[in-house]
Amino acid sequence: MYIIFQVKNKSCRFEVEDSVPLYRGAVFTITVPKTNISKICRFFPEGINGSAIENFSCVIYDISLMNCTWQAGRNAPGDTQYFLYWQNSRDDDQTECELYIKDEDDRNVGCKFQNVTIKDKTTYFLVNGSHKAFLIQFYDNYTKLYTIERLPPPLNVTTNCTSNPGGCIFTWQQPLLSHVENADCFEYEINIQNKDEIPEEKKNHLVVVAENKYEYQSYNAGKKSILRIRARGKRRCFVNRKWGEWSDPVEFGGEKDYFISVILLLIALGTILVTLLHYCLCKRYCSSKRIFPPIPQPRGKFDMPAEEDIQTENVLLSQKSCTEEITVIEEMT
C-alpha cells in the first residue's frame, strides 16, 4: 500500500484515518520536488520474529458490546503476556483493556469492552507483548467499527395473509443500532421455507428488498411455511455490508388444519357448557326424589328379628286366654 503526502515542514505527522499498520514494517521515501534528492527510511519492528500476536479479530454485538480475541505468537515464549490498547478516534485518549480474557496459562488472549460508541472515524488497536528476558514485537490494526458490527435481526416481523385472493404482506422494523436511525440505510433478505417438506428437498425462496415491506404472491393457504428476515447496510451508509442475524422463525399458512382444530375445540367447549347448564337447572328446580322416586319394599316377618316375633306371639296368646265364662245348668224335678 502506498500513501503520498506533500509537506512543507521538516516533520510529518500522519492522521489516523490515513495510516496503515506498522507491525509488518514500513518503508518511507522522502523526495524533494523538482530535484533528484530523495531519502529512503525503513522501519522494522524490534523483537523476536513471530512473537507478535496472530489472528486478531473484533466483533461488536448487542449495540454496545465488543469482544476482541487473538492468539499468542508462534515464536513467543510461553510466559509472554499481551496487553491491548485502543483509540476510538484521534480526539480520544488511548486506553487499555479493562476486562481481559485469559487462557489456561493465565495469558491474555482477548478483551471485552462495554459501552462502545460506533463512529464514522477510524479506530486504532495496539497489542504490546511483554517478557522478562526478551523483546516482543507489537501488533497494530486500523479499522472502522461499523465494519465489524454484527447486525441484530429486524424487529416486529408480522404476516398478513388472505386466501382470496391468495397472497401475504410481510412487514418489519429495521434492526436496532446505536448510530443509525435512517431506515433507508438497510436492505433485507427474505427467506421462506415450506415447513412440511423433507429437509433434503427443501427449497428456499430468497429475495432481497430495500423496504420494510414485501408482498408474497405464491401463498398456499393449505401449506404451513416459515419466514425469516435479516439485514445489511447499503454502500452509502456507515453500516456493515455483511448480512446480519436471522430473525426468529414466523409460521404462516396451514389455515385449514387451524380451522378444524378451532371447530373441534368449540364443539368440546359447547358440550361442556350445555352439560353444566343442565346440571345447574336440575339442581335449582328439580328434586332427586321426583326424578328418581324410591321403590317401596314389602315388609315380611322373615325380615324382623327373632326376639321381636317371639314377644308378639306371646302377647297375642295371652290376650286370647284372659277372658273365660263358665255356665252351670241345673235340672229341675
Automatic annotation (TrEMBL):
It is a single-pass type I membrane protein. Gene3D superfamilies: Immunoglobulins. The chain crosses the membrane at residues 258-281. It comes from the Eukaryota. This is Fibronectin type-III domain-containing protein. InterPro entries: FN3_dom, FN3_sf, Ig-like_fold, Short_hematopoietin_rcpt_2_CS, TypeI_recpt_CBD. It is found in: Membrane. GO terms for cellular component: external side of plasma membrane. The lineage of its organism: Eukaryota, Metazoa, Chordata, Craniata, Vertebrata. Its main location: membrane. Keywords: Glycoprotein, Membrane, Receptor, Signal, Transmembrane, Transmembrane helix. SUPFAM superfamilies: Fibronectin type III.
